[in-house]
Design brief:
Helix Hairpins; D-amino Acid Aminotransferase, Chain A, domain 1; 5 domains; 5-stranded mixed sheet; 22 strands
Length: 659
């Protein structure tokens, strides 16, 4: 390449890469895939390798792309949080190993999955978690300690006597949590996160820590940054130690002696990546001996002792056969593409969300088009582009009327979403009622999606109030209902009336208010009457509540129809008071598991007592469990707790703890 051409291209690439790097690291709104970014970055690397005089200090090849946000306090890292050198072929991995072996013939290597998330540092003093921060630019990051405290995989206290420990990990969003998150976003007409990595980063940078808790983030620890009072010879030894301390360590790290073993492990991770419950975007190969790492050192951006092998994304062509329109509980029309089935990342793909009209217009999509599909983050099918299109056709247009009720649809306040504003829209009514009765909301056992649809279809319910007016004779007249099932359902409905106020608030489906926010509102105001009388300033006084959330709550209760519904529910006997009374915080930060038959308390009573002292309860035993309360005939949970060395108490001991 001629010098002037190379110079012009390098300048253009730097401009593009800085733009996309800012979107990816700082705004969590990428416009191109990781693979496309990597290809641009590689092109710039090749030009700079051929013309070293074109390298600039601020080139994306020389610096980490993130920067500290103004929303959080800045943290200067005592140990630089470096990026990794990406490689895209087995030959490059072999070359890396050969270079290390040339200096250290006995060198061994660890191979581990590269978790696709947000890199953070966790600091512990005398076993207590004291600070957590993002990577930022590698030198200066953001103090996000409060948000990291909401991640259950991060221990607040660790075993092992070390005066100081700093570890590095990757915060990620598990697939199940991601699906729930984007479903809620799309139902609310919000722009959904593109992939779990952006969801994790966007969540961790929230000012409202309750949002972080609600999104169920997790973390894997993959490195010791600094330690006092302990010495390690190898990386594997340090990971084994972290596991003993109670950290969730990067899974499947494997020790390899040579290039053939490294290659085999990279292939094994690649073949199983579709089975992980989280995203990976590669495999990391690291020199195992820490003394060798120190001798090898680092470049301005990368350590010389590690590389990240990046798996290529799988893309396939298929035909868009149809576009189905779904109406959510907030009235948002969401288009879903129906495709000729193809195999992507190990699973059959025949459907993918098309998000909204703007997305359809941007891609120029029309039924009958041949399109290129890919799985974003290996799990979410997405349309990349049209490869064959009938030019006589424009792009598909969402219907002007609601496919459920026929009412006109609208775009409000420049939203991307198209909404049906008809309160009596059948599709919305069904989804509102499904949400109301769901386990996480009002929790009416036996009133699942199919039963709700059946009751709506037969004209028995059209609003939450109708659920509590159901009659035995009406239910018995329905196909499939017998006396026992009717008694069970009516019993569950009656029992639910004593639910805490927080469950009712969440069940109402107020936009931007999740289960954790609902609990905060219930505790803060104490009663439904007080909440309904609250103004925006009153709600903003609650920690973590912003203007959008406060306005949403006030607007909901300002609607006459909603106020009438609350009055009706109260008249039907639903509890309108908060039952959450925190006596003290003696169990704060502790998670209890109840197992076996309890004689002095019911499980519900014991759970409420634990919560009244600031603790939490869980249905399963894990490393995050603090205490197991074991009654008679305790089974597998007790056995697992014993194997993990978790504290086990009897009912008598529990009574002593709460006196």
């Amino acid at each position: 390449m001629e010098f002037q051409t190379a110079k012009a291209r390098a300048e253009q690439l730097r401009k593009e890469l800085k733009y996309h790097s800012d979107l990816y690291y700082n705004q969590d709104k990428p416009e191109i895939s990781d693979y496309e970014y990597d290809m641009l970055n590689n092109e710039l690397k090749r030009i700079e390798a051929e013309f070293p005089e074109l390298i600039t200090a601020d080139s994306p090849t020389q610096i980490v792309g993130g920067k500290a946000s103004k929303l959080f306090e800045k943290v200067t890292h005592a140990v630089k949080m470096e990026s990794l050198q990406d490689v895209f072929s087995v030959e490059e991995v072999e070359s890396f190993i050969e270079k290390i072996k040339a200096d250290f013939p006995d060198a061994a290597f660890t191979v581990e999955p590269k978790i696709d998330g947000l890199s953070v540092s966790l600091e512990y003093e005398n076993g207590t978690f004291v600070r957590g921060s993002t990577r930022g630019d590698g030198v200066i990051g953001e103090d996000v300690t409060t948000n990291l405290m909401q991640i259950q995989d991060i221990p607040h206290k660790i075993a092992g006597e070390v005066p100081y420990l700093e570890v590095r990990g990757e915060v990620y969003m598990p697939h199940d949590s991601f699906f729930q998150c984007i479903q809620k976003q799309e139902e609310a007409g919000e722009e959904p996160f593109k992939n779990p990595r952006n969801a994790a980063a966007g969540s961790l940078r929230q000012k409202n820590s309750a949002v972080v808790a609600e999104r169920n983030l997790s973390i894997f620890i993959f490195n010791v940054q600094a330690v006092e009072g302990k010495r390690f010879q190898t990386h594997k030894e340090s990971l084994d130690f972290l596991k003993e301390c109670g950290f969730s360590v990067v899974p499947g790290y494997t020790l390899c002696d040579n290039a053939a073993q490294v290659k085999a492990q990279i292939e094994a991770i690649g073949q199983s990546r579709g089975n992980f419950a989280f995203d990976i975007d590669g495999a990391v190969v690291k020199t195992n001996a820490l003394a060798q790492r120190e001798e090898l050192g680092s470049t301005a951006k990368f350590p010389k002792w590690a590389v990240a092998f990046k798996y290529p994304p799988e893309e396939k062509e298929t035909v868009l056969k149809d576009i189905e329109i779904n109406v959510g509980r907030t009235g948002v029309l969401t288009p879903t593409g129906v495709f000729e089935p193809v195999i992507l990342a190990g699973t059959t793909v025949s459907r993918a969300t098309l998000h909204n009209q703007d997305f359809i217009d941007e891609k120029g999509l029309q039924i009958g088009d041949t399109v290129l599909l890919r799985k974003a983050g290996e799990i979410i099918p997405e349309v990349l582009r049209v490869t064959k299109h009938d030019e006589s056709k424009g792009s598909y247009q969402l219907p002007a009327t609601c496919p459920s009720c026929g009412a006109p649809v609208y775009r409000l306040n420049d939203e991307a979403a198209v909404r049906c504003l008809n309160d009596q829209c059948p599709a919305q009514i069904v989804r509102v009622l499904i949400h109301f009765a769901s386990r996480d909301a009002y929790g009416i056992e036996g009133l699942g999606e199919a039963i709700v649809e059946l009751l709506v279809k037969n004209g028995l319910i059209a609003s939450p109030e109708d659920i509590f007016k159901l009659k035995e004779e009406d239910l018995l007249a329905l196909e499939g209902f017998q006396q026992t099932s009717v008694n069970n359902l009516l019993g569950a409905i009656e029992k639910s009336k004593s639910n805490d106020l927080s469950k009712l608030i969440f069940a109402l489906g107020i936009r931007h208010i999740g289960a954790k926010n609902a609990a905060q509102l219930a505790v803060h105001f104490g009663s439904m009457d007080a909440l309904m009388a609250a103004g925006e300033e009153d709600i903003l006084a609650i920690e973590g509540f912003g203007e959008i959330m406060a306005k949403s709550v006030v607007e909901f209760f300002a609607t006459e129809q909603n106020r009438a519904m609350i009055e009706s529910l109260a008249a039907l006997g639903l509890n309108m008071q908060s039952l959450a009374t925190i006596k003290d915080e003696r169990f704060k930060g502790q998670t209890f598991v109840l197992t076996g038959s309890l004689s002095k308390f019911t499980r519900s009573e014991a759970s409420k007592i634990i919560e009244s002292y600031g603790g939490k309860t869980s249905g399963s035993v894990s490393k995050k469990t603090s205490v197991v309360l074991a009654g008679e005939a305790a089974g597998s949970k007790l056995t697992k707790a014993q194997s993990l060395g978790i504290k086990i108490i009897t009912e008598d001991e529990f009574e002593e703890m709460i006196q």
